[in-house]
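Hi, here's the filled form for the chain we discussed.

Project: internal
Contact: R.S.
Residues: 104
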Amino acid sequence: MAVKGKNDIVRQRRDDFISKWGSSPAKIATKEIAQIVSDLSSKIHKARVKSKLTQQQLAKLSGVSQAVVARMESKTYDGRSLASLVRIATALEFEIEVLVNTKQ
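And the returned structure, exactly as it came back:
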């Protein structure tokens, strides 16, 4: 068995990444955002159920409508507002971290 060099490992990781995400930066960003949204929706739903709250109860605690809670739990909804997200996350006692990086 041949020993892989650093370039071979980098090439393999790049190929694995491209096969998973695609090679277009726009496609990569879209897929990453979709995964983040899916994870967030799932976390909100699981936390609400674990807290034994209905959507209506969570809505009342967070100061949003029940429809907003339902949309936040939907993996296909794209129009989440940061303000609503913060209200719901606070009511569920989530810790919120926001990272903003510049491309260099």
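Let me know if anything looks off before we file it.
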